[in-house]
Structures are given as C-alpha cells and as structure tokens.
Write a structure and sequence with these properties.
The protein is α+β, with helices and mostly antiparallel strands and about 160 residues long. It folds into 2 domains: about 35 residues; about 80 residues, inner membrane protein cigr (Nuclear Transport Factor 2, Chain: A), CATH 3.10.450. The protein is about 55% helix and about 15% strand. It contains 7 helices and 4 strands. It has a 4-stranded antiparallel sheet. The protein is elongated and about 110 Å long. It starts with a helix and ends in a 5-residue tail after the last strand.
C-alpha cells in the first residue's frame, strides 16, 4: 500500500513541472496572437514623442541648474549668538561676504538700511534689490534670495 502511495506522489511530482511549463507557454503564445496593427498602436504609445523628449530634457536641465546654484550658508551657532548680540563678525567671515554668495539671515538682520536721503540721491535700484550696511560694508542684495549682488568696504585699506 505504501508503495502505491509513493508511486502516486512521485508521478505527481514529475508531472507538476510539465504542467507549469505548458501554462507559461500558453501565455507566451497569447502575446504573439496580437495582430500587427495592435502592435503598431501599442508601440506608438510606448515611444516618447519629440515634444515629450524636449519637455523632459528642459525640466531636468532646469532642475540641474537649480542644484548648481549656491545654497544659503549658515553661520555656526557661536557666531550667530555673537551677531545677535550686535558684535562684529570675525575677519574670516567678513571676507565671505562676496558677490554671488548668499547672506546669512543673522547677518542680514544685523544690517541697517541706508538713510532715505542717501537712497534718494542714488540712481533707481534694480527691481527686487535692497541696500544695507553691515559693519563697514555696503551690500546690495536680492531681497527674495538674499544673494549678494555687489559689496564694497566703507574704509578701503591702502
């Protein structure tokens, strides 16, 4: 009796892979049954159109440019406290105030706006910019991004 059961189990074990293989083959033949017109329509939908390609390229290039733009630099916590108390930045950090860099928020808050009489005598400022004084430096920056557009020292060194 146990021999018959063993033979039945062995027969099932051998036939299962064959059955599984035949069902996979049947699925494969279903894909081949699509007529050529359906395949052509399907391939047109799967391929990027030139307009889609250009749009994707433009978007990715724009994102890449944004990544390359300079990030806001933050002062270390100790210097933030020092600036908040109204003290000057160390000389090394003062040198980092250069065109193209982003002005730290704490330094920006320390900056004073120029008097109205001076601003009136100056030519029209570029839209979205402002002029502030930080210690002995005059800084023109973009108001929205705090990017330094121009900077000069009030006390030029000889």
């Amino acid at each position: 009796m146990w021999r018959i059961a063993l033979l039945v189990l062995l027969a099932l074990a051998v036939s299962l892979p064959t059955y599984a293989k035949s069902s996979k083959h049947e699925k494969h033949t279903k894909g081949e049954r699509l007529n050529k017109q359906q395949q052509a329509e399907r391939s047109r939908e799967e391929v990027f159109s030139p307009a889609e390609r250009n749009m994707i390229r433009a978007q990715l290039q724009q994102e890449e440019r944004k990544k390359k733009q300079k990030k806001h630099k933050k002062l270390p916590p100790g210097l933030q406290k020092k600036v908040a108390r109204g003290k000057e930045l160390p000389p090394g950090w003062q040198k980092k105030i250069a065109p193209g860099d982003s002005l730290d928020y704490q330094v920006y808050r320390q900056g004073l706006s120029l008097p109205e009489e001076i601003l009136r005598r100056l030519p029209q400022q570029p839209t979205g910019s402002e002029i502030i004084q930080v210690d002995d430096r005059i800084i023109r920056l973009n108001s929205a991004t705090r990017t330094i557009l121009d900077v000069f020292n009030l006390n030029p060194t000889p």
